[in-house]
Every structure is written in C-alpha cells, then in structure tokens.
Amino acid sequence: MPHDERLSVQLLRDLITSKEPDTRTRQRFVDVCSRLARFAGIEANFNGLRGNYSIVTAGRREIPADHVIAEWFEKIPSAAWRWVYGMMATYGIRNHEVFHLDFSKMPVLVVEDDTKTGFHRVYPFYPEWVKEWNLSEVNYPPCTGKNNTDLGKRVSRAFHRYKVPFKPYDLRHAWAVRTISFRLPTTLAARMMGHSVQMHERVYHHWITEDFETQVIERLMQSDRPLPPHPQ
C-alpha cells in the first residue's frame, strides 16, 4: 500500500482487485482489508470481490504415490529432516504439528497442538514405516519459530532445500487417501486429522484419482465379499 495516501475504501478496493480473481490470495486480501477497514472506522463491504475460489475450483492436485514417498525418504541427506518427513508421511500431520507431539504411546502418536485442532490421536498408515524409518527415535532438527506459521515455513523451506518434488501438505493428502485402502471409517480418519467429517469429505476425498479408485475396487472384489444369488 502507498505510504503517502490516505486510507480509503477505494484504496483497499484497488488493493483487492490487484489480486487474481477466484484465488485463495484474493479471498485472503478481502478478509484482511475488511478487518483493516473496521479497525480504521471505515464502512466498507468487499464481499462481492471474494470470487468463487474453493477446493474444487483450485485445480487437480498431484498426490505422490506411496512408492514415490518411500523413495524420497531415502534421498533426504539430513537425518533430522528425514525423520520429520517420515513422521508427516506416516501420520499425515500438519507442518507445524510435528513440533507438538507426545510420543509416550508410540506407535500411536498424540498431537498436542492447542492452537488449532486440539489434542488428538493418530495411528500410522503404514505401521511398517515406523520401524523401517526408526521413527520412534525422536530426532528434531535445530529449528525454532515464534509461532506455528514460522515452524510450518521451516518445514516447507527444508522440502525446497532438499528438492523434494512435492509439498509437505501433499503427504497429508496422501495419508488421507491411503486410509481409504485400509478401510478406515471416515469418522475416525477425520478425527485423527483434527477436523470434521464434512471437511474431510469435501477436501481430501476430492483428490482421489481414477487409478486409486480402480485399485481399491479391485482389492474389494478380490476379498471376502457377497456373491450373487443363483437360481434354486
């Protein structure tokens, strides 16, 4: 914002419309400028500028396959950041949640984040990764931050530094989709991720690919299932 201009509705409106329509950034600017206007005692309504951004209109996210996730665990040179990567892949936790964990019930993980989702337990999917990747041996990197946002950015920067070809949150998406193949009820999956069933179905089930869908159906058809009736 220009420092030599008086704060006004038009100035805030110009700032909002400078951002691409129907994007998350546009919606964030509407929220921030609305708060700023209220703080300054300016009457303004920017809701008409929010656009139609949603998880559905954001485009298809490429979720890494589990074998790719496993391969990249071995490629991270730092043992500490490799441990962080493994924890996020195995338990589907958020970037900052890796720094708010209770390990007393391992391999069940307890997330103690009291700033967003509160206390919740998470089970490993796959449990074999806990042993194969030695995740029970806590190995935090020398990482600090004033708040959860700072801690989350440290994780994102580490992924970028080690050239991991997907984002930290993609590991969370992969965990959510993976639980379907384990036939984990949606209610439990949502609880372990620290959000509502509605959020789980709206956001994470959106990233189910056709290939994954086919694999799950084929597995179900080969398992113990009802058979068609035959004439007597």
**Strand numbers in spatial order across the main sheet:** 1-2-3
* Intertermini distance: 80 Å
For the sheet with most strands, the description reads: 3 strands, antiparallel
**Could you tell me the number of beta strands?**
3
Number of helices: 10
Describe the structure.
The protein is mostly helical and 232 residues long. Helices cover 47% and strands 3% of the residues. The chain is built from ten helices and three strands; from the N terminus they run H-H-H-H-E-E-E-H-H-H-H-H-H. It has helices at residues 9-17, 24-40, 66-75, 79-91, 128-132, 148-161, 168-181, 186-193, 197-203, 210-222, and strands at residues 101-102, 109-111, 120-122. The longest helix is centred in the N-terminal third of the chain and has 17 residues, at 24-40. The relative contact order is 0.10.
List keywords for this structure.
232 residues; mainly alpha; three-stranded antiparallel beta sheet; 10 helices; 47% helix; 3% strand
Quick gist of this model?
The protein has helices spanning 9-17, 24-40, 66-75, 79-91, 128-132, 148-161, 168-181, 186-193, 197-203, 210-222; strands at 101-102, 109-111, 120-122. By secondary structure, it is mainly alpha-helical. It is globular and about 80 Å long.
Summarize the helices and strands and which ones pair or pack.
Elements lengths: L8 H9 L6 H17 L25 H10 L3 H13 L9 E2 L6 E3 L8 E3 L5 H5 L15 H14 L6 H14 L4 H8 L3 H7 L6 H13 L10
Antiparallel strand pairs: 1-2, 2-3
